[in-house]
C-alpha cells in the first residue's frame, strides 16, 4: 500500500467503509505516517454545488504542484444499502491524474462511526502522501458539521434564496465555519445573502472563537470559476493563521479532531460488545417487543441492559 | 403534570433537553400513557419553509378539533450552547391557543442522545393527551432523517431549484419519505422538481417498502396555503394505510422507532459510564494528547479503554 498499490488502497478503504473487522489493525500501522496533510472540510445543503467547487479546487491545488485526496461523505439509503450514481459521474476531469485520489464513503457505520470511518480514509490518504485532503459532506445536519469540523479549515457553502429564511442560520453551522461561500452568485439576492451572513457572523461573535480570524464571505460561480481565486486566497489566509505562533491554533484544531475520533471509535466499539453480550433473550429485538407491547418502558430496559453488562453503578 | 400544570411540563422538557439526571425516572411513569398520538415528522434543507408549513398544519388539525404538539429539533451551536431566536418568533399565531403546545429542543445530548431526547418530549406530549404531534427537524443530515423516521408518517420538504442537482437525492432521504412536498411552488422549475422526484421514486422502488403506499409528491405554497388541503389528504391517506390490516404497518413503524430509541439510550448511557470509569489519567483528554503528540494511535487507545472497562473480549 505504501508502495502505491492502488488496488490494495482501494480495498482497505472499502473495508473501512463497510466496517469490516481488521481495518483498525492496518490503520494502526499507517497512523504514524499521517498528520502531515492539510485537511479542508466543505459542507452545505444538497444542491448548493459542493462537488463542482471541490472539483475546481482540486484543479487549483494540482496547478500548484500539490497532490490531492478527496473524501466525499455520502451516507446511502438506510433501506437499500446500495451505491449511488453521483460519485461515478463526478470529477471525471481528474480521472486520469495520478496526483488525485477520490473516494466516497457510501455507508454508515452500524452504531455511528461515520466520523471515525471518514478519518480512517483521511489517514490512508495522508499515509499515501497526499498534500491536501478535501473532505466533502452532503447535507447540513449535525453529523455532517461534526465531520467537517475535524478538518483544519471548514468551508460552509450556501446559495442565494436559502438565506432569506431564519432557519438557514440554524443547526449550529454558523460558528463551525472558517470560510463562507455563496455559490451560484448570479442568482437573485446574492448580495443580500452575503450581507445577511455577515450580519449573523457579527452578531454571533463567531470570529472571537478563532483568535484573529474573521471568517470571510465569498461569492463564487462554480460553473465558470469566478470567485475561486478569492476562495483559494482565503484558504491560504486561514492556513497562515492556523500555523502562526508555532501552530497553536492548528494543534488546538487537531486536538478537537482527535477527541471526536476517539469518542466515535469508543462508542462504536462499546455498542458492538454490549449488544453481543446481551444474548438473544435480552437482546435488542426482545427489548423492542417489550416496549411496543407496553410491557416495559425503554428507560428501564436500557438501564437494565447497562447494569447487566457494566455492573451496577 | 398530568393535571395540566404547564410550568411543571416545561421544566421536565427543559431537563430532558439539558440531559439533567432524573428525567428518565419521570418518563418511566409517563410512558404507559404514551403511544396513542399520531406522530408526523417533517424534514428538509434549511430555508425550504418547514416552520410555515408546520404552522399551517397546526391550524388545520385544530380546526378538526384535535389538540396538537410541536417538537422542533434544532441543535444549537456546538460552541456557544446558547438559545436561538427563531423559536421565539415563530408560531405566534398559536401562542394563546391552549390546544397547542410548542417546544423546541435546542441542545444536543452529550453523546448523541438526540433521538431519545426528542422521543422523550414526544412522550411527555402524548401523556399530556395531545392528539397529533408534529416533529420538525432542521437540516437534511443523517441524524435528522433518523429522528423523523421514528414518526408514523415522514414528510420530506424541498423547493424548486435544489432538485436540479444530483446531490439533492442523496443522504438517504428519498426512501425515508412517505410524502414529498415541493414548497414555494411559484418558483421557476417547480414542475420539473416534481417530475424528478417522481422519477427517482420510481427508480428507487421506494414504494415497495411501504406495502401499497405510493409516496405522493405535493406542490404547496406555505405563504397562502395552496396545496395544504392536498397535504392533509395525503396525511390521512397514509394513516389509513398504516392502520389497515389491524395496524400491521403502524406496529412495524413503532417497532422501528422503539429500536432507535433503545439504541440511543443505551449508547448515551454506556458512554457516560465508560468515560466516568476511566479516571483522569486514562481519560479522554489524556488519550487526545497521546494521539496529537503521535505517541499513540486512536485505534489502540480506544481498544484499551474498552478492555479496561468491559474486560478482554
Structure description:
Chain A is an alpha/beta fold. The first copy, chain A, has two domains: 6-247, Rossmann fold; 279-310, no CATH class. In chain A, α1 (6-18) runs antiparallel to α5 (114-127) and α5 (114-127) crosses α8. Helix content of chain A is 47%, strand content 12%. Chain A has helices at 6-18, 23-30, 50-63, 86-89, 114-127, 142-148, 190-204, 228-278, 284-292, 298-310, and strands at 38-44, 68-73, 100-105, 132-138, 153-158, 179-182, 217-219. At the A-B interface, α2, α6, α8, α9 and α10 of A face α2, α6, α8, α9 and α10 of B.
Poorly predicted parts of chain A = 76-88, 164-171
The CATH class designation of the largest domain in chain A is Alpha Beta
> Nearest-angstrom radius of gyration of chain A?
21 Å
Q: What form of chain A results from the Cα inertia axes?
A: globular
Major sheet of chain A: 7 strands, parallel
SSE order of chain A: HHEHEHEHEHEEHEHHH
Strand order of the largest sheet of chain A: 3-2-4-1-5-6-7
Percent in helix of chain A: 40-55%
Number of helices of chain A: 10
Indicate the structural class of chain A.
alpha/beta
- The number of strands of chain A is 7
CATH architecture of the largest domain in chain A: 3-Layer(aba) Sandwich
> How many structural domains are formed by the residues of chain A?
2
| β-sheet strand percentage of chain A | 5-15%
Using the coordinates shown, work out and report the CATH topology of the largest domain in chain A.
Rossmann fold
Oligomer: homodimer
Amino acid at each position: 500500500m505504501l508502495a502505491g498499490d492502488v488496488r490494495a488502497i482501494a480495498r482497505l478503504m472499502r473495508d473501512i467503509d463497510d466496517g469490516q473487522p481488521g481495518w483498525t489493525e492496518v490503520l494502526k500501522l499507517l497512523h504514524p505516517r499521517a498528520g502531515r496533510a492539510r485537511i479542508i472540510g466543505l459542507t452545505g445543503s444538497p444542491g448548493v454545488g459542493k462537488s463542482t467547487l471541490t472539483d475546481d479546487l482540486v484543479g487549483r491545488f494540482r496547478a500548484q504542484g500539490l497532490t490531492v485526496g478527496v473524501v466525499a461523505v455520502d451516507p446511502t439509503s438506510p433501506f437499500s444499502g446500495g451505491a449511488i450514481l453521483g460519485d461515478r459521474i463526478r470529477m471525471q476531469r481528474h480521472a486520469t491524474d495520478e496526483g488525485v485520489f477520490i473516494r466516497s464513503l457510501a455507508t454508515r457505520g452500524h452504531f455511528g462511526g461515520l466520523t471515525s470511518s471518514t478519518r480512517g480514509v483521511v489517514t490512508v490518504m495522508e499515509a499515501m502522501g497526499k498534500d491536501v485532503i478535501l473532505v466533502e459532506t452532503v447535507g447540513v445536519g449535525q453529523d455532517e458539521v461534526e465531520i467537517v469540523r475535524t478538518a483544519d479549515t471548514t468551508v460552509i457553502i450556501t446559495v442565494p434564496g436559502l438565506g432569506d429564511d431564519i432557519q438557514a442560520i440554524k443547526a449550529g453551522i454558523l460558528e463551525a465555519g472558517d470560510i463562507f461561500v455563496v455559490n451560484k452568485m448570479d442568482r437573485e439576492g446574492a448580495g443580500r445573502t452575503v450581507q445577511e451572513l455577515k450580519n449573523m457572523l457579527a452578531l454571533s461573535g463567531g470570529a472571537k472563537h478563532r483568535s484573529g480570524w474573521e471568517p470571510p464571505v465569498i461569492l463564487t460561480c462554480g460553473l465558470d470559476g469566478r470567485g475561486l481565486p478569492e476562495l483559494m486566497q482565503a484558504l491560504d489566509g486561514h492556513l497562515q493563521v492556523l500555523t502562526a505562533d508555532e501552530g497553536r491554533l492548528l494543534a488546538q484544531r487537531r486536538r478537537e479532531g482527535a477527541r471526536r475520533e476517539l469518542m466515535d471509535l469508543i462508542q462504536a466499539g462499546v455498542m458492538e460488545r454490549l449488544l453481543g453480550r446481551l444474548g438473544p433473550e435480552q437482546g435488542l429485538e426482545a427489548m423492542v417487543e417489550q416496549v411496543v407491547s407496553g410491557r416495559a418502558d425503554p428507560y428501564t430496559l436500557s438501564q437494565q441492559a447497562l447494569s447487566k453488562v457494566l455492573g451496577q453503578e
